[in-house]
Design brief:
Distance between the termini: 12 Å
Number of helices: 4
CATH class: Mainly Alpha
Radius of gyration: 12 Å
Oligomer: single chain
CATH architecture: Orthogonal Bundle
CATH superfamily: Winged helix-like DNA-binding domain superfamily/Winged helix DNA-binding domain
Order of helices and strands: HHEHHEEEE
Strand order of the largest sheet: 1-5-2
């Protein structure tokens, strides 16, 4: 079931009018999305999956946030920050 929903999220991501780096990152996040469009891959995972550096992932993520394609929420466990929660802002679910 989640696999099908991931494809719906990826289909949504493909249709977004963004530049190449933003589209690639959006697609990778969409690949991890659950039925509510939420995903929580680490920056390390996103860098590995996209072939971008950690710095490029963070910069590209900021662009996607600023343009309203995703919402990022920091997650903390105790005193340590864990992977962020990313929510896709599409109507694909």
């Amino acid at each position: 079931m989640v696999v099908t929903l991931s494809f719906q999220a990826m289909s949504w991501a493909l249709k977004q009018p963004v530049k190449t780096a933003e589209k690639l990152l959006l697609l990778v996040i969409a690949n991890y999305a659950d039925e509510q469009g939420r995903a929580w891959p680490s920056v390390e995972t996103l860098a590995r999956d996209t072939g971008m550096s950690r710095t490029s992932v963070k910069r590209t993520m900021k662009k996607l946030e600023d343009t309203g394609f995703i919402r990022r929420q920091k997650r903390v466990k105790g005193y340590l920050q864990t992977s962020n929660l990313y929510t896709l802002k599409g109507g694909f679910s």
